[in-house]
Amino acid sequence: MFRAKKMTHEDIEVEGKRVLMRVDFNVPLDKKSGAITDDQRIVAALPTIKNLLSRGARLILVSHLGRPQGFDTSLSLKGCAERLSGYLEQEVIQAEDVIGSDAKEKAAALEDGQVMLLENVRFHKEETKNDPEFARALAGLADLYVNDAFGTAHRAHASTAGVASFLPGVSGYLIQRELEMIGGAIDEPVRPFTAVMGGAKVSDKIGVIRHLLSKVDHLILGGGMAYTFLAAKGWEVGTSLLEADKIDLARELMAEAEEKGVTLSLPLDIVVTTEYAPDAESRTVDSNDIPAGWMGLDIGPKTREKFADIIRAAGTVVWNGPVGVFEFPAFAHGTRAIAAVMAETDAVTIIGGGDSAAAVKQFGYENDMTHISTGGGASLELLEGRVLPGVDCLLDLDPRRKVAAGNWKMNLGAPADAVSFLEELKCELADAPSRIIVATPSTALDAALSATAYSNIHVAAQTGHEIDSGAYTGNVSMATLAKMHVPYVLIGHSERRAMDNETDERVQAMLKSALSWGLRPILCCGESLKEREAGETEDVLTRQIGSAFEFVTADKLVQIIVAYEPIWAIGTGRTATVEQAEEACAFIRSFLKKKYPANWVERVKVLYGGSVNDENAGELFAAESIDGGLVGGASLKADAFKVIANA
Prior knowledge:
By secondary structure, this protein is of the alpha/beta class.
């Protein structure tokens, strides 16, 4: 999976700006007193917080704590505000609400270098639903957004992803470090590359194992999941944790490892017992000799030595999941041994959060690892090759990263047809460097959103009505699209301008509505053949762009893509020459620079659309002012669209 580098808070000016920063202050609390028992997550956020404050930001922190069902004083963030105040040696202003009057008043009154903490964002059920109106209200407190909560980056919630549809979003130090370490280990490891996978269930890590089989040289499997693989070899596993319905899958994975030349190592011997208890009687047996009625709770000494040898020989080691019940001292020897050998090796050692991180800390090896992830679920999904919503929504470091946007028009409108093609595209485009967008018929939008979740393919609607609701038969409002979590929408496509009376005035209203609902518009513009032959191309573009952007403020430019599509080249087989396309796209950017600061205009993608195909995309996209393409018929052919997305 291609991972585009993201902008960080160091790449933006923050002095005098209100910065909404998502942090992960989901700290453990004492059940009786409610006191914080471990503030590591607060400590982890300090570098980004201190940097922003030192640069004059007016900082607004937002976090969740626990799983409240409405407003719950026992899960208030006031304790976190007090603890943070101590570390910063300055007051942390505590809001009494999240988007209410107190939060608004305190945010508005902030001065440079001051910091406030909103109340628990999950007091609002709209947070986890990524409700666009809630996200808009949250974003309304600030000018910029910084996400530094890696532990929640795999969730598409309002405060982790939704607000970036309204504000320019960048990452903090914590997320950047996680992406560099885990992403770097997966994509550019020091070899040999070894992964250690443990934990209870195969089903929890099917995607991770499958993804790693195309990356690693050696895969070690331990913990509860190993017994399903032992059973797949035809061996007795007693009463050990077993997913009987995954035995065939385990056989498939072992065969896949062999086919790809990956050495897959299972335990040689097992520490077994008759009951799941810390003081249970135990003995060590060979893995193919587990007695009936006995269960495995740890790996044995032969396995510990074998796994240690593999780890010592590695250049990179990624570990996720304990190899035994390390909470019980009698069955912690295997997990301790893995931690110990990783601590002593010179390899790059990465701990994937969750129970693995807890084990490393319990055994006192946390300072001996290259990196310990702060997010269990997020790190697991990153290892699986999934796209994290809380990262994907942030601005690319490269402002001119190419975009491959496919417009399916009236094709593949049946949900099953759309999903079938999208599954093919996900395989073909997994490593494409472009940002990939597909505009499906409205009938397939919901199915397409589900099919592309956590992938690098983004869904667009082909149009949206500017009025939120009413008697507009056959139309779908921008409001509805936002509530469906459709991220992009085409506006002003030439066919709709001609056939559906989408005048410049309507296009402006549609653009305004889309931005107000957090949709990212792909604004289409272009001249007819008659207008080009009359030398009116620049006049047409000036009128269309000038009208559409009349109300748009500079900070909203990062949400907008412009697609120049000469009407005479759409569906006709005729394509503008590279010189013609370059000239028009350059004119659009120069026009915007007359209205907005150049650094903001630089982040506007300007695409070319007009019979783009796999044969001409490379030459078109190489032009200085063309940032990709809006593709018609060629986007319906997986092999052709793959070429375009890699152009």
